[in-house]
């Protein structure tokens, strides 16, 4: 028998076909996440017209999703540290399928708002569990790249949502989008039934039949079985959940990663939400505003994969700091492009998105590396929850600043300066090292 622990064997061995399959299923689930997120914004114009909904009320329906994301990240995702990543992931995908079909049949705005909140809870949970599962199922060589590839699933899902809308919306109405999303989530749920529990959870949480499940997993990964589970480190035996991240040895790192997630997302969602309006106000035609969205999507996919590939060589922290600072730099350049300069705006859109998306992946990789396995879902849940709070603040703050007539450069300079906060927080995390559960 191999003298190494199961985790050491998995991290050192070449990645197997079975691990590729598990990571691919996680990517599929993240893509379904992207489709389900996109359907209401895409259906909103037709829905508002059909039901006579005023913009303020439609805004409530759209924001209900964001509130649910915070709830899912903070309160539901940490449950996976107690009951398992696999089961919570499957439950979240099942909820998504149900809410999509129910949304397609609803006849009241109140019910739709409630369903969007529940959808957000499921999506917020999935963001956390899928990141953790991929990081724990991959070997060390491919871990960061695998997380980067996972994040492309969400981008591809939102792009697929746009394609579905282009095919179905005019011919079959807004309800068809939700039916299509429900069908995709149902197929994804069936795929998640083949997911395995992660070896880290089996070793640390010790569920019933943990040794048999672990050895079955090791055989599928082309690795030798073990005679017994390795001993659990004494310090982490009873440390599960968010409370374990607030003990004296851990609370500073927890605060820093939450600070980084919040302020990064404030700036990032401002740009995502207001870029079309900023471009239009700068004399760019609606055609090129649409093209900018395609450029941003392509840059985002390239960045997810690129950052995932680079992180193992550069380290998560240096790469996160570099992408955050680069994001701020290109925000400033976006404010300096002369009015009506299509080529300049399209170029800076691509570069700003490249660093923006790269920073998202890099910050999550820092979080994964910071939190120990038994509290990883709780830690990433806190990070994602704080980031989702930023998605509420960023667009609103942008609206206030634009209405205050600070000008394009003044507004973008303010958001660029905010990015110094997450860059400093991540740099400080690198100095402190992983969380210590005292």
List the helices and strands and how they pair.
Layout: H1 6-12, H2 17-51, H3 55-76, H4 80-83, H5 85-105, H6 109-137, H7 143-172, H8 175-192, H9 199-205, H10 210-220, H11 251-281, H12 286-314, H13 316-336, H14 342-370, H15 376-403, H16 407-418, H17 420-432
Helix pairs in contact: 2-3, 2-6, 2-7, 2-8, 3-6, 3-15, 5-6, 5-8, 6-7, 6-15, 7-8, 7-12, 11-14, 11-15, 11-16, 11-17, 12-13, 12-14, 13-14, 13-16, 13-17, 14-15
Description of the structure:
The chain has 438 residues and is mainly α. The protein has two domains: 6-232, Up-down Bundle (Growth Hormone, Chain: A), CATH 1.20.1250.20; 242-432, Growth Hormone, Chain: A. Helices cover 79% and strands 0% of the residues. It is built from 17 helices and no strands. Helix 2 packs parallel to helix 7.
CATH superfamily of the largest domain: MFS general substrate transporter like domains
Mean pLDDT: 86
Instruction: Let me know the largest β-sheet.
Output: none
What is the CATH class designation of the largest domain?
Mainly Alpha
Order of helices and strands: HHHHHHHHHHHHHHHHH
Specify Rg, calculated over alpha carbons.
22 Å
Which consecutive residue ranges, at least 5 long each, have pLDDT under 50? none
Overall structural domain count: 2
What is the straight-line distance between the termini? 33 Å
Shape designation: globular
In CATH, the architecture of the largest domain is Up-down Bundle
Secondary-structure-based class equals mainly alpha
Query: What is the overall number of helices?
Result: 17
Portion in helices: over 70%
CATH domain topology of the largest domain: Growth Hormone, Chain: A
Strand segment count:
0
Beta-strand residue fraction: under 5%
């Amino acid at each position: 028998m191999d003298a190494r622990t199961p985790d050491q064997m998995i991290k050192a061995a070449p990645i197997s076909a079975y691990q590729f399959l598990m990571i691919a299923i996680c990517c599929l689930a993240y893509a379904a996440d992207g489709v389900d997120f996109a359907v209401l914004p895409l259906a909103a114009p037709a829905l508002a017209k059909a039901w006579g909904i005023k913009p303020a009320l439609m805004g409530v329906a759209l924001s209900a999703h964001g509130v649910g994301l915070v709830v899912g990240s903070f309160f539901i995702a940490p449950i996976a540290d107690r009951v398992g990543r696999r089961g919570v992931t499957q439950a979240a995908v099942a909820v998504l399928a149900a809410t999509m079909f129910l949304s397609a049949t609803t006849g009241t705005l109140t019910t739709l708002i409630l369903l969007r909140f529940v959808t957000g809870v499921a999506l917020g949970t999935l963001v956390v569990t899928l990141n953790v599962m991929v990081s724990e199922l991959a070997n060390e060589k491919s871990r960061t790249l695998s997380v980067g590839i996972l994040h492309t699933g969400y981008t591809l899902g939102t792009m697929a949502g746009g394609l579905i809308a282009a095919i179905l919306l005019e011919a079959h109405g807004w309800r068809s989008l939700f039916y299509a999303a429900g069908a995709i989530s149902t197929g994804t749920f069936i795929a998640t039934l083949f997911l395995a529990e992660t070896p880290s959870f089996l070793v640390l949480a010790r569920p019933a039949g943990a040794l048999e499940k672990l050895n079955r997993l090791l055989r599928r990964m082309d690795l030798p079985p073990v005679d017994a589970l390795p001993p659990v480190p004494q310090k982490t035996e009873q440390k599960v959940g968010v409370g374990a991240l607030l003990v004296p040895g851990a609370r500073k790192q927890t605060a820093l990663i939450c600070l980084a997630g919040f302020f990064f997302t404030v700036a990032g969602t401002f740009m995502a939400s207001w870029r079309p309006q900023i471009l239009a106000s700068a004399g760019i035609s609606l055609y090129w505003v649409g093209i900018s969205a395609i450029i941003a999507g392509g840059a985002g996919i390239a960045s997810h994969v690129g950052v995932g590939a680079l992180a193992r060589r550069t380290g998560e922290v240096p790469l996160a700091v570099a992408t955050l600072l680069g994001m701020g730099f290109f925000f400033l350049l976006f404010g300096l492009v002369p009015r009506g300069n299509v080529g300049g705006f399209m170029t800076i859109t691509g570069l700003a998105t490249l660093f923006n998306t790269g920073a998202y992946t890099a910050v999550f990789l820092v979080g994964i590396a910071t939190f120990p396995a038994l509290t990883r879902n709780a830690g990433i849940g806190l990070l994602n929850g704080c980031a989702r709070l930023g998605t509420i603040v960023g667009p609103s703050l942008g609206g206030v600043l634009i209405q205050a007539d600070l000008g394009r450069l003044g507004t973008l300079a303010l958001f660029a300066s905010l990015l110094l906060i997450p860059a400093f927080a991540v740099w400080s995390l690198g100095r402190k090292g992983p969380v210590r559960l005292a």
